[in-house]
Specification:
The chain contains 13 helices and 18 strands. By secondary structure, the chain is of the alpha+beta class. The protein has a seven-stranded mixed beta sheet, covered by helices on one side. A four-stranded antiparallel beta sheet has the order 12-11-10-17. The longest helix is centred in the N-terminal third of the chain and has 28 residues.
Length: about 425
């Protein structure tokens, strides 16, 4: 009798464990067959997956195509999208606690999200690219509303928050940050110059400057536990990293087919999931096969019926550092004392009290005191000026216009809308043009 009772208990435990395992394994699993009904779309959308698992979306309107892309991308990459968004906005500590507090402080200071919040206050033009971004994030949010979230959220005890167009701009800012070499090189060059001299420094450079050199006047104190170094380590350990790429294009007279050829190898560090999200979509008169950064609606590289383009990182010098003379909440610029713009943001920290973070911004940009590996001399602070914050910089518009361009002139014009991130664009079209 006891043995029989023991077998019953064992059977109940085994079956319960099996059910829990099966439920857990399928939490947040993407749907690859069947039908889904939405009131938010205009007409029927047909989605098929090829043998590589890449979605092919055929819609009757641009709105429906981007809505469907957002829904599908969220179904496969939501947690990755959320991590990258939280990094860009300085909201990781809400998930991971105090271990990511310094990362949040750095990105709050850079103001990737705040900068575009201010831009939105001024009013972005209600053009088609904004409407398509909104459709994409409506699709993302529709997946979130359905409640089938990835298992990571159950482990962390949180639910994903809705995505907005502003989040998309913050994600582009994260891309620009990973491409920017100034934070990694300029301050190091300054240290080398002070310790080994200008001649030794120029021997390390590919193209030494021809004019007299301006350097950051900073105290050479290397801070191994600075917010910057902690952020770099966290990004490299937890997210796919943009780490180099290459590309080339051949003119028609150099190819056997007589057409232009483009090859692009935008390799990044291996990760699971990987950085790129691959998809095809079309609506009457338009189509695109592209590689997307998870969380962004417009492809970074791809091809349509007219042209193809690829990208490589361009390590341009798009950051300048200023040694600012300061007193209290002012800095001395162009012969006069100017007030700093000061804002205080609250960082929510899992398991602990919220932390108030003070951010100081001068005429040249945010002050980096205490965040980088160098400290300013007494009475001075280090400010960051970055082309990413130029008013005319609108990377989503550039990517959208590159996608819909009908010829090389329109494609070239599209790139004028972006000053950052630093990218080389490689181009080829069906007319045989390369660039």
């Amino acid at each position: 009798m006891r043995q029989h009772f023991g077998l019953k208990i064992f059977g109940i435990i085994f079956i319960s464990t099996l059910i829990i395992f099966l439920v857990w394994r399928n939490l947040g699993a993407p749907q690859y067959s069947g039908e889904v009904t939405f009131e938010a779309i205009d007409d029927e959308v047909n989605v098929t997956f090829d043998h590589h698992g890449i979605p092919h979306i055929k819609a009757v309107s641009e709105h429906d195509a981007f809505f469907s892309l957002g829904y599908l991308m969220a179904s496969e990459r939501l947690f990755q999208m959320d991590l990258m968004r939280r990094l860009a906005k300085g909201e990781l500590s809400e998930l991971f606690g105090a271990k990511t507090l310094e990362v949040d402080k750095l990105f709050r200071t850079l103001g990737l999200s705040y900068h575009f919040k201010e831009k939105f206050k001024e009013g972005l033009p209600q053009l088609q690219y904004i409407a398509s971004m909104e459709a994409f994030y409506r699709g993302v949010n529709k997946f979130i509303e359905r409640g089938s979230r990835p298992r990571e959220y159950y482990l962390l005890g949180l639910a994903p928050e809705p995505f907005t167009v502003q989040d998309g701009y913050a994600l582009v800012g994260y891309m620009a940050y990973t491409f920017a070499m100034g934070l990694k090189t300029d301050l190091l060059y300054d240290e080398i110059k002070k310790s080994a001299g200008l001649k030794a420094l120029n021997q390390l450079r590919i193209r030494p400057p021809s004019s007299s050199e301006m350097t950051v006047e900073a105290k050479g104190e290397f801070k191994k536990n600075s917010s910057f170094s902690i952020a770099q380590n966290w990004i490299e350990e937890n997210l796919p990293v943009f780490t180099g790429s290459n590309a080339w294009a051949l003119a028609p007279e150099r190819s056997k087919s007589g057409g232009a050829i483009l090859a692009n190898d935008p390799h990044v560090r291996l990760s699971s999931p990987g950085l790129w999200y691959e998809a095809y979509f079309s609506w009457p008169g338009r189509e695109l096969y592209g590689h997307f950064v998870p969380g962004l609606p417009f492809a970074a590289l791809g091809h349509n019926q007219n042209h193809a383009w690829g990208v490589t990182i361009s390590y341009v010098d798009d950051m300048d550092f200023y040694s600012e003379r300061r007193k209290e909440d002012q800095v001395f610029v162009k012969g006069e004392w100017r007030d700093l713009k000061i804002r205080k943001e609250v960082i929510r920290v899992k398991g602990e009290n919220p932390v108030e973070h003070r951010i100081e911004v001068g005429p040249h940009g945010p002050l980096l005191d205490g965040l980088t590996r160098l400290k300013g001399k007494r009475g001075k602070s280090i400010a960051l000026k970055w082309t990413h914050f130029k008013k005319e910089n609108d990377p989503p518009k550039a990517l959208y216009d590159m996608m819909i361009a009908d010829d090389r002139k329109a494609f070239k014009k599209a790139m004028a809308h972006a000053t950052s991130p630093g990218l080389n664009i490689v181009y080829a079209d069906k007319e045989g043009n390369i660039g």
